[in-house]
Amino acid sequence: MSDAAARERRAKQTTRNLIYSLAATAALVLVMVLVTPRPTTSLVQPVDYKASANDIRDTAKLPVLAPKLLAKGWYSNSARWNSQTADGVDNWYVGFVGPKNQYLGITQGFNANPTWVMLQLKGDLPQGAVTIAGKRWTVWQATAKNDPPKTRDYAMVTEVTSGTRTDSVLVYGTATKSEFREFATLVAQQLKVLYP
Predict the structure, then answer these.
(1) What confidence tens digit (pLDDT) does each residue in 133-152 have?
(2) Is 26 in a helix, a strand, or coil?
(3) Kind of pairing, strands 165-173 and 103-109?
(4) Whether the model pTM is above 0.85
(5) Which residues neighbour 139 within 8 Å (Cβ) at sequence distance 6 or greater?
(6) What is the DSSP letter of 64?
């Protein structure tokens, strides 16, 4: 066999070996994907936000919100107390997830001021007001349309007074407008109890 023929044979063999190697690697990856176990339930566990709210009420002596869930299928995925913050506004946050993966969140700022509210809703502007369950809510909307919607593209804000302290309650999320109204009704009902 001549040198030229041997070189051509080696070149073809290298290409064949590369193709065989790629096929073996793809088969190995496919087997790994097929045999890797995947969880069948959500890895996010519901949070007992009502128990957390009760603990904070006892320790901080503040009227912390813990509204009822909207309906079957809704659960809380997060509850957080933020005290001694850099802006000086202690706040309570609870996040809720619905059966269609919609989201609603509450942030309750204690002794909050308009600047704090604006910083929470950066990029949003007040677009009017609605009254729900006897409470006046200012509606805030994002100045730019986000796709998919961000969690604070639409928000409703109300203020409540306790003695000399004014607290702000923000309700925001990606739920439908009717779910927002229902949820704001539940929040307003609890506000009447907590802020007599």
Answers:
(1) 999 999 999 988 777 778 88
(2) helix
(3) antiparallel
(4) no
(5) 126, 127, 128, 129, 130, 154, 155, 156
(6) -
